[in-house]
Protein backbone atom coordinates (compact mmCIF):
# COMPACT_ATOMS: atom_id res chain seq x y z
CA UNK A 1 0.00 0.00 0.00
CA UNK A 2 1.36 3.44 -0.81
CA UNK A 3 1.00 6.47 1.38
CA UNK A 4 -0.86 9.10 -0.72
CA UNK A 5 0.81 12.07 1.03
CA UNK A 6 4.26 10.64 0.40
CA UNK A 7 3.36 9.70 -3.18
CA UNK A 8 2.24 13.27 -3.78
CA UNK A 9 5.43 14.68 -2.23
CA UNK A 10 7.59 12.40 -4.38
CA UNK A 11 5.65 13.38 -7.51
CA UNK A 12 6.23 17.05 -6.74
CA UNK A 13 10.00 16.46 -6.56
CA UNK A 14 9.83 15.30 -10.19
CA UNK A 15 7.80 18.25 -11.40
CA UNK A 16 9.15 21.27 -9.53
CA UNK A 17 12.32 23.28 -9.31
CA UNK A 18 12.49 24.43 -5.71
CA UNK A 19 13.77 27.77 -4.53
CA UNK A 20 15.43 25.96 -1.63
CA UNK A 21 16.23 22.32 -0.93
CA UNK A 22 17.05 21.67 2.71
CA UNK A 23 19.12 18.57 3.53
CA UNK A 24 18.51 17.26 7.07
CA UNK A 25 15.22 17.06 8.97
CA UNK A 26 16.31 17.94 12.50
CA UNK A 27 15.07 21.11 14.16
CA UNK A 28 17.46 23.28 12.09
CA UNK A 29 16.34 21.96 8.70
CA UNK A 30 12.69 21.87 9.76
CA UNK A 31 12.89 25.48 10.96
CA UNK A 32 14.48 26.66 7.72
CA UNK A 33 11.95 24.79 5.52
CA UNK A 34 9.15 26.39 7.56
CA UNK A 35 10.68 29.86 7.35
CA UNK A 36 11.21 29.53 3.58
CA UNK A 37 7.57 28.49 3.06
CA UNK A 38 6.37 31.39 5.20
CA UNK A 39 8.30 33.76 2.93
CA UNK A 40 6.55 32.39 -0.14
CA UNK A 41 9.55 30.37 -1.36
CA UNK A 42 9.09 26.82 -2.58
CA UNK A 43 11.00 24.45 -0.32
CA UNK A 44 11.82 20.76 -0.17
CA UNK A 45 13.02 19.11 3.06
CA UNK A 46 14.93 15.83 2.73
CA UNK A 47 15.70 13.69 5.77
CA UNK A 48 17.81 10.53 5.61
CA UNK A 49 16.02 8.69 8.42
CA UNK A 50 13.09 9.88 10.48
CA UNK A 51 12.51 13.54 11.24
CA UNK A 52 14.31 14.40 14.51
CA UNK A 53 16.11 11.06 14.59
CA UNK A 54 19.47 12.80 15.10
CA UNK A 55 20.36 15.25 17.86
CA UNK A 56 16.91 16.81 17.81
CA UNK A 57 15.37 13.90 19.73
CA UNK A 58 18.34 13.48 22.03
CA UNK A 59 18.82 16.84 23.73
CA UNK A 60 18.31 17.69 27.40
CA UNK A 61 14.94 19.03 26.22
CA UNK A 62 15.32 22.42 27.84
CA UNK A 63 13.95 25.52 26.21
CA UNK A 64 16.27 27.97 27.86
CA UNK A 65 18.85 30.70 27.50
CA UNK A 66 21.41 28.58 29.30
CA UNK A 67 22.88 30.06 32.45
CA UNK A 68 26.14 28.30 31.68
CA UNK A 69 26.50 30.19 28.37
CA UNK A 70 26.12 33.45 30.26
CA UNK A 71 29.12 32.43 32.32
CA UNK A 72 30.99 31.82 29.05
CA UNK A 73 30.15 35.39 28.01
CA UNK A 74 27.73 34.44 25.19
CA UNK A 75 25.30 37.25 26.09
CA UNK A 76 23.91 37.57 22.56
CA UNK A 77 23.15 33.85 22.39
CA UNK A 78 21.53 33.87 25.83
CA UNK A 79 19.39 36.94 25.11
CA UNK A 80 18.20 35.55 21.78
CA UNK A 81 17.42 32.13 23.30
CA UNK A 82 15.45 33.70 26.12
CA UNK A 83 13.39 35.75 23.67
CA UNK A 84 12.72 32.60 21.66
CA UNK A 85 11.83 30.70 24.83
CA UNK A 86 9.19 33.30 25.66
CA UNK A 87 7.82 33.23 22.12
CA UNK A 88 7.57 29.42 22.05
CA UNK A 89 5.98 29.30 25.47
CA UNK A 90 3.45 32.06 24.88
CA UNK A 91 2.58 31.84 21.19
CA UNK A 92 4.19 29.23 19.00
CA UNK A 93 4.01 26.04 21.08
CA UNK A 94 2.57 26.47 24.59
CA UNK A 95 1.39 22.84 24.39
CA UNK A 96 4.97 21.67 23.91
CA UNK A 97 6.88 24.07 26.14
CA UNK A 98 6.22 23.96 29.84
CA UNK A 99 7.63 26.51 32.31
CA UNK A 100 9.41 25.02 35.32
CA UNK A 101 11.22 26.52 38.30
CA UNK A 102 14.97 25.87 38.23
CA UNK A 103 16.77 25.53 41.58
CA UNK A 104 20.48 26.24 41.78
CA UNK A 105 21.88 25.04 45.14
CA UNK A 106 25.41 26.21 45.96
CA UNK A 107 27.87 24.35 48.22
CA UNK A 108 31.04 25.50 49.90
CA UNK A 109 33.91 24.91 47.46
CA UNK A 110 31.72 24.85 44.29
CA UNK A 111 33.40 26.23 41.13
CA UNK A 112 30.98 29.20 41.16
CA UNK A 113 30.65 30.99 44.51
CA UNK A 114 27.22 31.99 45.79
CA UNK A 115 27.65 35.69 44.94
CA UNK A 116 28.44 34.83 41.30
CA UNK A 117 25.44 32.49 41.00
CA UNK A 118 23.20 35.19 42.44
CA UNK A 119 24.61 37.79 40.06
CA UNK A 120 24.26 35.43 37.10
CA UNK A 121 20.66 34.48 37.92
CA UNK A 122 19.76 38.13 38.46
CA UNK A 123 21.21 39.12 35.05
CA UNK A 124 19.55 36.08 33.47
CA UNK A 125 16.19 37.13 34.90
CA UNK A 126 16.64 40.63 33.53
CA UNK A 127 17.64 39.39 30.08
CA UNK A 128 14.52 37.19 29.94
CA UNK A 129 12.18 39.95 31.11
CA UNK A 130 11.15 37.76 34.07
CA UNK A 131 8.64 39.07 36.57
CA UNK A 132 9.97 39.78 40.05
CA UNK A 133 8.34 36.72 41.64
CA UNK A 134 9.82 34.39 39.02
CA UNK A 135 13.39 34.92 40.22
CA UNK A 136 14.76 34.52 43.73
CA UNK A 137 18.48 35.09 44.11
CA UNK A 138 18.49 34.89 47.90
CA UNK A 139 17.33 31.36 48.69
CA UNK A 140 18.57 30.25 52.10
CA UNK A 141 19.71 26.66 52.75
CA UNK A 142 16.47 26.19 54.74
CA UNK A 143 14.32 27.35 51.82
CA UNK A 144 16.17 25.02 49.44
CA UNK A 145 15.77 22.08 51.82
CA UNK A 146 12.10 22.86 52.30
CA UNK A 147 11.61 22.68 48.51
CA UNK A 148 13.92 19.65 48.04
CA UNK A 149 14.25 17.70 51.31
CA UNK A 150 16.47 15.10 49.61
CA UNK A 151 19.27 17.63 49.00
CA UNK A 152 22.60 17.06 50.74
CA UNK A 153 22.77 19.30 53.81
CA UNK A 154 26.46 19.60 54.74
CA UNK A 155 28.15 22.51 52.98
CA UNK A 156 24.94 23.99 51.50
CA UNK A 157 25.37 27.77 51.66
CA UNK A 158 22.29 28.97 49.73
CA UNK A 159 21.19 29.29 46.15
CA UNK A 160 18.83 30.79 43.63
CA UNK A 161 15.65 30.00 41.74
CA UNK A 162 14.60 31.12 38.29
CA UNK A 163 12.16 30.10 35.59
CA UNK A 164 12.98 28.24 32.36
CA UNK A 165 11.17 25.58 30.37
CA UNK A 166 11.14 21.96 29.22
CA UNK A 167 9.90 20.53 25.93
CA UNK A 168 9.56 17.33 23.94
CA UNK A 169 12.32 17.98 21.39
CA UNK A 170 11.17 15.38 18.84
CA UNK A 171 7.56 16.54 18.87
CA UNK A 172 8.67 20.18 18.56
CA UNK A 173 10.66 19.22 15.47
CA UNK A 174 7.82 17.22 13.94
CA UNK A 175 5.38 20.08 14.62
CA UNK A 176 7.77 22.40 12.77
CA UNK A 177 7.99 19.96 9.84
CA UNK A 178 4.20 19.74 9.74
CA UNK A 179 3.92 23.53 9.72
CA UNK A 180 6.37 23.70 6.81
CA UNK A 181 4.32 21.08 4.92
CA UNK A 182 1.03 22.82 5.64
CA UNK A 183 2.52 26.02 4.25
CA UNK A 184 3.50 24.32 1.00
CA UNK A 185 6.89 22.67 1.54
CA UNK A 186 7.55 19.16 0.24
CA UNK A 187 8.80 17.14 3.21
CA UNK A 188 10.23 13.63 2.97
CA UNK A 189 11.68 11.48 5.70
CA UNK A 190 13.58 8.29 4.87
CA UNK A 191 15.00 10.08 1.83
CA UNK A 192 18.80 10.46 2.17
CA UNK A 193 20.71 12.77 -0.12
CA UNK A 194 23.56 10.75 -1.60
CA UNK A 195 25.09 13.13 -4.13
CA UNK A 196 25.39 16.82 -5.00
CA UNK A 197 25.77 18.13 -8.54
CA UNK A 198 24.81 20.91 -10.93
CA UNK A 199 22.46 20.84 -13.89
CA UNK A 200 21.84 23.79 -16.17
CA UNK A 201 22.75 26.30 -13.49
CA UNK A 202 20.65 24.55 -10.84
CA UNK A 203 21.64 22.50 -7.80
CA UNK A 204 20.89 18.83 -8.34
CA UNK A 205 20.54 16.39 -5.45
CA UNK A 206 20.59 12.64 -5.90
CA UNK A 207 18.29 11.04 -3.32
CA UNK A 208 16.91 7.63 -2.48
CA UNK A 209 13.43 6.72 -1.35
CA UNK A 210 14.18 4.26 1.46
CA UNK A 211 10.61 2.96 1.32
CA UNK A 212 10.94 1.64 -2.22
CA UNK A 213 14.70 1.67 -2.79
CA UNK A 214 14.21 3.92 -5.83
CA UNK A 215 16.48 6.83 -6.65
CA UNK A 216 15.07 10.28 -7.41
CA UNK A 217 16.46 13.69 -8.15
CA UNK A 218 15.66 17.10 -6.68
CA UNK A 219 16.41 20.32 -8.54
CA UNK A 220 16.69 23.58 -6.63
CA UNK A 221 18.03 27.07 -7.11
CA UNK A 222 19.75 26.94 -3.73
CA UNK A 223 20.61 24.26 -1.19
CA UNK A 224 21.06 24.41 2.55
CA UNK A 225 22.85 21.52 4.24
CA UNK A 226 21.60 21.24 7.85
CA UNK A 227 22.75 17.79 8.87
CA UNK A 228 24.06 18.61 12.36
CA UNK A 229 26.72 16.12 13.50
CA UNK A 230 26.79 14.51 10.02
CA UNK A 231 28.06 17.74 8.40
CA UNK A 232 31.60 16.57 7.64
CA UNK A 233 30.43 13.25 6.11
CA UNK A 234 27.87 15.02 3.92
CA UNK A 235 30.30 17.77 2.90
CA UNK A 236 32.65 15.05 1.66
CA UNK A 237 29.96 14.25 -0.94
CA UNK A 238 30.21 17.87 -2.09
CA UNK A 239 33.98 18.20 -1.99
CA UNK A 240 36.25 15.41 -0.78
CA UNK A 241 39.13 16.59 1.38
CA UNK A 242 37.55 19.81 2.68
CA UNK A 243 38.38 21.01 6.21
CA UNK A 244 36.22 19.64 9.04
CA UNK A 245 33.46 22.07 10.03
CA UNK A 246 32.02 20.50 13.18
CA UNK A 247 33.34 19.38 16.48
CA UNK A 248 31.21 16.60 17.93
CA UNK A 249 30.44 16.33 21.58
CA UNK A 250 28.17 13.66 23.04
CA UNK A 251 25.80 13.97 25.98
CA UNK A 252 23.91 11.22 27.85
CA UNK A 253 20.74 11.25 29.93
CA UNK A 254 19.13 8.69 32.24
CA UNK A 255 15.43 8.36 33.14
CA UNK A 256 14.79 7.30 36.73
CA UNK A 257 11.98 5.03 37.78
CA UNK A 258 8.79 6.80 38.97
CA UNK A 259 9.09 8.26 42.44
CA UNK A 260 12.84 7.60 42.88
CA UNK A 261 13.77 11.30 42.82
CA UNK A 262 10.69 13.50 43.13
CA UNK A 263 11.48 17.19 42.55
CA UNK A 264 9.38 20.38 42.47
CA UNK A 265 11.41 21.75 39.57
CA UNK A 266 14.67 21.31 37.71
CA UNK A 267 17.70 21.08 39.98
CA UNK A 268 21.20 22.09 38.89
CA UNK A 269 23.74 19.41 39.85
CA UNK A 270 27.53 19.23 39.63
CA UNK A 271 29.59 16.37 38.20
CA UNK A 272 32.74 15.15 39.93
CA UNK A 273 34.67 17.62 37.73
CA UNK A 274 32.43 20.57 38.71
CA UNK A 275 30.45 20.59 35.41
CA UNK A 276 26.77 21.56 35.57
CA UNK A 277 24.12 18.88 34.99
CA UNK A 278 20.35 18.93 35.43
CA UNK A 279 17.83 16.75 37.23
CA UNK A 280 14.58 17.39 35.35
CA UNK A 281 11.15 16.32 36.63
CA UNK A 282 8.86 14.83 34.00
CA UNK A 283 5.52 13.74 35.44
CA UNK A 284 6.24 11.27 38.24
CA UNK A 285 9.67 10.59 36.76
CA UNK A 286 12.92 12.52 36.72
CA UNK A 287 15.67 12.40 34.12
CA UNK A 288 19.24 13.41 34.74
CA UNK A 289 21.99 14.61 32.41
CA UNK A 290 24.00 15.55 30.56
CA UNK A 291 27.64 14.82 29.78
CA UNK A 292 29.91 16.62 27.32
CA UNK A 293 32.38 14.14 25.80
CA UNK A 294 34.27 14.53 22.48
CA UNK A 295 32.82 12.05 20.00
CA UNK A 296 34.17 10.57 16.76
CA UNK A 297 30.73 9.40 15.71
CA UNK A 298 27.77 11.43 14.50
CA UNK A 299 25.33 8.82 15.70
CA UNK A 300 25.98 7.90 19.31
CA UNK A 301 22.74 6.42 20.63
CA UNK A 302 24.23 3.93 23.10
CA UNK A 303 25.03 5.43 26.49
CA UNK A 304 28.48 4.24 27.64
CA UNK A 305 28.79 2.84 31.17
CA UNK A 306 31.30 5.55 32.11
CA UNK A 307 28.84 8.34 31.27
CA UNK A 308 25.98 6.61 33.08
CA UNK A 309 28.26 6.21 36.10
CA UNK A 310 29.26 9.88 36.01
CA UNK A 311 25.60 10.98 35.94
CA UNK A 312 24.43 8.62 38.70
CA UNK A 313 27.41 9.58 40.87
CA UNK A 314 26.53 13.28 40.45
CA UNK A 315 22.92 12.60 41.46
CA UNK A 316 24.01 10.49 44.44
CA UNK A 317 26.37 13.22 45.59
CA UNK A 318 23.60 15.85 45.59
CA UNK A 319 20.86 13.51 46.86
CA UNK A 320 22.84 11.08 49.04
CA UNK A 321 19.87 9.40 50.73
CA UNK A 322 18.34 8.28 47.44
CA UNK A 323 21.12 5.72 46.70
CA UNK A 324 20.46 5.53 42.98
CA UNK A 325 21.69 2.41 41.20
CA UNK A 326 21.51 1.00 37.68
CA UNK A 327 18.19 -0.79 38.28
CA UNK A 328 16.56 2.61 39.03
CA UNK A 329 17.10 3.63 35.41
CA UNK A 330 14.27 2.79 32.99
CA UNK A 331 15.32 4.79 29.96
CA UNK A 332 18.35 6.49 28.49
CA UNK A 333 19.41 8.51 25.48
CA UNK A 334 22.53 10.10 24.09
CA UNK A 335 22.91 12.84 21.52
CA UNK A 336 25.82 14.38 19.64
CA UNK A 337 26.18 18.16 19.61
CA UNK A 338 27.21 19.60 16.27
CA UNK A 339 29.42 22.46 17.48
CA UNK A 340 30.79 24.94 14.94
CA UNK A 341 34.53 24.43 14.67
CA UNK A 342 36.56 27.64 14.80
CA UNK A 343 40.06 26.29 15.36
CA UNK A 344 41.86 26.53 18.69
CA UNK A 345 41.93 23.77 21.23
CA UNK A 346 39.20 24.64 23.71
CA UNK A 347 37.57 21.82 25.67
CA UNK A 348 34.18 20.92 24.13
CA UNK A 349 32.26 22.15 27.16
CA UNK A 350 33.73 25.58 26.54
CA UNK A 351 32.98 25.74 22.82
CA UNK A 352 30.29 28.27 21.88
CA UNK A 353 26.82 27.03 20.85
CA UNK A 354 26.63 29.86 18.28
CA UNK A 355 25.57 28.86 14.78
CA UNK A 356 27.63 29.49 11.68
CA UNK A 357 26.50 29.72 8.04
CA UNK A 358 28.93 29.16 5.17
CA UNK A 359 28.48 29.35 1.40
CA UNK A 360 30.74 26.51 0.28
CA UNK A 361 29.93 26.85 -3.43
CA UNK A 362 27.70 29.11 -5.49
CA UNK A 363 24.17 28.59 -4.06
CA UNK A 364 25.25 25.78 -1.72
CA UNK A 365 25.14 26.73 1.94
CA UNK A 366 25.88 24.79 5.10
CA UNK A 367 24.86 25.62 8.66
CA UNK A 368 26.57 24.26 11.76
CA UNK A 369 26.03 24.76 15.48
CA UNK A 370 23.00 26.28 17.15
CA UNK A 371 20.51 25.28 19.80
CA UNK A 372 17.08 23.72 19.77
CA UNK A 373 15.64 26.72 21.63
CA UNK A 374 16.70 29.30 19.05
CA UNK A 375 15.75 27.36 15.93
CA UNK A 376 13.27 29.98 14.67
CA UNK A 377 15.64 32.92 15.07
CA UNK A 378 18.40 30.90 13.43
CA UNK A 379 16.10 30.02 10.50
CA UNK A 380 15.22 33.70 10.13
CA UNK A 381 18.91 34.67 10.02
CA UNK A 382 19.68 31.92 7.51
CA UNK A 383 16.89 32.97 5.13
CA UNK A 384 17.93 36.62 5.44
CA UNK A 385 21.36 35.61 4.15
CA UNK A 386 20.41 32.93 1.60
CA UNK A 387 17.44 34.84 0.14
CA UNK A 388 17.99 38.51 1.12
CA UNK A 389 15.06 39.61 -1.07
CA UNK A 390 12.64 37.59 1.05
CA UNK A 391 13.24 39.75 4.13
CA UNK A 392 10.17 41.71 5.14
CA UNK A 393 8.07 42.72 8.08
CA UNK A 394 5.23 40.40 7.07
CA UNK A 395 7.58 37.42 6.83
CA UNK A 396 9.02 38.27 10.21
CA UNK A 397 5.57 38.48 11.79
CA UNK A 398 4.42 35.21 10.20
CA UNK A 399 7.55 33.49 11.40
CA UNK A 400 6.23 33.95 14.94
CA UNK A 401 2.90 32.28 14.11
CA UNK A 402 1.70 29.28 16.17
CA UNK A 403 2.72 25.74 15.25
CA UNK A 404 0.12 22.98 14.76
CA UNK A 405 -1.57 22.29 18.07
CA UNK A 406 -1.39 25.93 19.17
CA UNK A 407 -3.74 27.53 16.68
CA UNK A 408 -7.17 26.85 18.11
CA UNK A 409 -8.86 26.88 21.44
CA UNK A 410 -7.68 24.38 24.04
CA UNK A 411 -10.22 21.91 25.44
CA UNK A 412 -12.65 23.25 28.04
CA UNK A 413 -13.21 21.39 31.33
CA UNK A 414 -16.55 20.13 30.02
CA UNK A 415 -14.88 18.73 26.89
CA UNK A 416 -12.29 16.92 29.03
CA UNK A 417 -15.06 15.43 31.17
CA UNK A 418 -16.90 14.24 28.09
CA UNK A 419 -13.70 12.76 26.65
CA UNK A 420 -13.07 10.95 29.94
CA UNK A 421 -16.56 9.43 29.91
CA UNK A 422 -16.13 8.32 26.31
CA UNK A 423 -12.65 6.85 26.79
CA UNK A 424 -13.07 5.38 30.25
CA UNK A 425 -9.88 7.18 31.34
CA UNK A 426 -9.42 9.68 34.16
CA UNK A 427 -9.55 13.38 33.23
CA UNK A 428 -6.05 14.02 34.60
CA UNK A 429 -4.54 11.09 32.71
CA UNK A 430 -6.12 12.29 29.49
CA UNK A 431 -4.92 15.85 30.09
CA UNK A 432 -1.36 14.72 30.84
CA UNK A 433 -1.10 12.43 27.85
CA UNK A 434 -2.79 14.75 25.38
CA UNK A 435 -1.16 17.99 26.47
CA UNK A 436 1.53 17.73 23.74
CA UNK A 437 -1.25 17.65 21.12
CA UNK A 438 -2.71 21.00 22.17
CA UNK A 439 -5.84 21.90 20.26
CA UNK A 440 -5.54 18.67 18.25
CA UNK A 441 -6.48 16.57 21.30
CA UNK A 442 -10.00 16.15 19.89
CA UNK A 443 -8.67 14.94 16.55
CA UNK A 444 -6.51 12.39 18.39
CA UNK A 445 -9.40 11.16 20.53
CA UNK A 446 -11.54 10.57 17.46
CA UNK A 447 -8.97 8.02 16.29
CA UNK A 448 -9.24 5.94 19.46
CA UNK A 449 -12.25 3.97 18.31
CA UNK A 450 -13.56 3.01 14.94
CA UNK A 451 -15.29 0.23 13.05
CA UNK A 452 -13.83 -3.08 14.20
CA UNK A 453 -12.35 -1.69 17.44
CA UNK A 454 -13.68 -3.48 20.50
CA UNK A 455 -13.11 -0.52 22.80
CA UNK A 456 -11.43 2.89 22.95
CA UNK A 457 -7.63 2.86 23.14
CA UNK A 458 -5.58 6.02 23.62
CA UNK A 459 -2.36 4.28 22.57
CA UNK A 460 -4.00 3.24 19.32
CA UNK A 461 -5.26 6.81 18.80
CA UNK A 462 -1.75 8.22 19.23
CA UNK A 463 -0.35 5.64 16.82
CA UNK A 464 -2.97 6.39 14.17
CA UNK A 465 -2.37 10.13 14.56
CA UNK A 466 1.38 9.57 14.19
CA UNK A 467 0.89 7.63 10.95
CA UNK A 468 -1.82 9.78 9.40
CA UNK A 469 -0.68 13.24 10.44
CA UNK A 470 2.93 13.05 11.63
CA UNK A 471 4.81 11.11 8.92
CA UNK A 472 5.57 8.03 11.08
CA UNK A 473 6.66 5.21 8.74
CA UNK A 474 8.22 2.78 11.22
CA UNK A 475 7.20 1.45 14.60
CA UNK A 476 10.31 3.00 16.21
CA UNK A 477 9.18 6.41 14.90
CA UNK A 478 6.05 6.05 17.02
CA UNK A 479 7.74 4.51 20.06
CA UNK A 480 10.76 6.78 20.21
CA UNK A 481 9.78 10.13 18.67
CA UNK A 482 6.01 10.68 18.15
CA UNK A 483 5.34 9.38 21.67
CA UNK A 484 7.61 9.08 24.72
CA UNK A 485 6.76 5.41 25.24
CA UNK A 486 10.31 4.13 24.74
CA UNK A 487 12.04 6.63 27.00
CA UNK A 488 9.53 7.05 29.80
CA UNK A 489 7.26 3.98 29.53
CA UNK A 490 9.41 1.86 31.84
CA UNK A 491 8.05 -1.65 32.45
CA UNK A 492 4.94 -0.87 30.37
CA UNK A 493 6.77 0.56 27.36
CA UNK A 494 6.38 -2.51 25.16
CA UNK A 495 3.11 -3.82 26.61
CA UNK A 496 1.16 -3.30 23.38
CA UNK A 497 4.04 -3.83 20.97
CA UNK A 498 2.42 -6.72 19.14
CA UNK A 499 -1.00 -5.09 18.71
CA UNK A 500 0.60 -1.76 17.77
CA UNK A 501 2.63 -3.55 15.11
CA UNK A 502 -0.55 -5.21 13.79
CA UNK A 503 -2.30 -1.85 13.63
CA UNK A 504 0.58 -0.17 11.86
CA UNK A 505 0.81 -3.12 9.44
CA UNK A 506 -2.87 -2.59 8.67
CA UNK A 507 -2.44 1.17 8.15
CA UNK A 508 0.67 0.91 6.00
CA UNK A 509 0.05 -2.41 4.27
CA UNK A 510 3.05 -4.28 5.70
CA UNK A 511 3.72 -7.95 5.08
CA UNK A 512 4.02 -10.28 8.09
CA UNK A 513 7.80 -10.33 7.62
CA UNK A 514 7.96 -6.53 7.62
CA UNK A 515 5.80 -6.37 10.75
CA UNK A 516 8.07 -8.84 12.56
CA UNK A 517 11.16 -6.87 11.52
CA UNK A 518 9.58 -3.68 12.90
CA UNK A 519 8.88 -5.39 16.24
CA UNK A 520 12.46 -6.67 16.34
CA UNK A 521 13.80 -3.15 15.69
CA UNK A 522 11.89 -1.76 18.67
CA UNK A 523 13.14 -4.57 20.91
CA UNK A 524 16.70 -3.97 19.68
CA UNK A 525 16.42 -0.30 20.50
CA UNK A 526 15.25 -1.11 24.02
CA UNK A 527 18.17 -3.47 24.60
CA UNK A 528 20.69 -0.92 23.23
CA UNK A 529 19.22 1.82 25.40
CA UNK A 530 20.07 0.01 28.61
CA UNK A 531 23.05 -2.05 27.41
CA UNK A 532 25.39 -0.10 29.72
CA UNK A 533 23.69 -1.85 32.69
CA UNK A 534 26.00 -4.81 32.16
CA UNK A 535 26.68 -7.04 35.18
CA UNK A 536 28.82 -5.37 37.83
CA UNK A 537 27.84 -1.81 36.84
CA UNK A 538 26.78 -0.95 40.39
CA UNK A 539 30.14 -2.18 41.69
CA UNK A 540 31.88 0.26 39.33
CA UNK A 541 29.59 2.99 40.63
CA UNK A 542 30.61 2.32 44.22
C1 LIG B 1 23.27 16.14 24.82
C2 LIG B 1 22.66 17.36 24.20
C3 LIG B 1 21.86 18.19 24.95
C4 LIG B 1 21.29 19.32 24.39
N1 LIG B 1 20.43 20.05 25.12
C5 LIG B 1 19.84 21.13 24.59
C6 LIG B 1 18.87 21.83 25.34
O1 LIG B 1 18.52 21.45 26.44
N2 LIG B 1 18.31 22.92 24.78
C7 LIG B 1 18.67 23.36 23.54
O2 LIG B 1 18.15 24.38 23.11
N3 LIG B 1 19.56 22.69 22.77
C8 LIG B 1 20.14 21.58 23.27
N4 LIG B 1 21.02 20.85 22.53
C9 LIG B 1 21.34 21.29 21.17
C10 LIG B 1 20.28 20.85 20.16
O3 LIG B 1 19.76 19.60 20.47
C11 LIG B 1 20.91 20.81 18.77
O4 LIG B 1 21.52 22.04 18.50
C12 LIG B 1 19.89 20.56 17.67
O5 LIG B 1 19.05 19.47 17.97
C13 LIG B 1 20.62 20.30 16.38
O6 LIG B 1 19.67 20.11 15.38
P1 LIG B 1 20.11 19.88 13.89
O7 LIG B 1 18.89 19.90 13.08
O8 LIG B 1 21.17 20.86 13.53
O9 LIG B 1 20.80 18.44 13.90
P2 LIG B 1 20.07 17.02 13.92
O10 LIG B 1 18.90 17.01 14.79
O11 LIG B 1 21.12 16.00 14.19
O12 LIG B 1 19.54 16.86 12.46
C14 LIG B 1 20.37 16.55 11.37
C15 LIG B 1 19.62 15.58 10.48
O13 LIG B 1 20.31 15.41 9.26
C16 LIG B 1 20.02 14.10 8.81
N5 LIG B 1 20.97 13.71 7.77
C17 LIG B 1 22.25 13.30 7.92
N6 LIG B 1 22.78 13.00 6.71
C18 LIG B 1 21.80 13.22 5.79
C19 LIG B 1 21.73 13.08 4.36
N7 LIG B 1 22.77 12.64 3.65
N8 LIG B 1 20.56 13.38 3.75
C20 LIG B 1 19.48 13.82 4.45
N9 LIG B 1 19.52 13.97 5.79
C21 LIG B 1 20.66 13.68 6.45
C22 LIG B 1 20.11 13.27 10.08
O14 LIG B 1 19.46 12.02 9.96
C23 LIG B 1 19.48 14.19 11.10
O15 LIG B 1 18.10 13.91 11.32
C24 LIG B 1 21.58 19.67 23.05
C25 LIG B 1 22.38 18.83 22.28
C26 LIG B 1 22.88 17.67 22.85
C27 LIG B 1 23.69 16.74 22.02
Could you describe the 3D structure shown?
The chain has 542 residues and is an alpha+beta fold. The chain contains 20 helices and 18 strands. The chain has helices spanning 4-15, 27-38, 67-71, 75-92, 114-128, 141-147, 169-182, 231-238, 305-318, 375-386, 393-398, 413-423, 427-434, 441-446, 458-469, 475-482, 485-488, 497-508, 512-529, 537-541; strands spanning 17-23, 43-46, 62-63, 97-107, 136-139, 156-167, 186-188, 193-199, 202-209, 214-225, 246-256, 266-270, 276-282, 285-289, 293-294, 329-340, 356-361, 364-368. Strands 3, 4, 5, 6, 11, 12, 13, 14, 15 and 16 form a ten-stranded mixed β-sheet that branches. Strands 1, 2, 7, 8, 9, 10, 17 and 18 form an eight-stranded mixed β-sheet that branches. The protein is globular and about 70 Å long. The relative contact order is 0.14. Bound molecules: flavin-adenine dinucleotide (FAD). Flavin-adenine dinucleotide (FAD) is lined by residues 23-29, 46-49, 53-56, 58-62, 192-193, 226-230, 234, 251, 290, 335-338, 370-373.
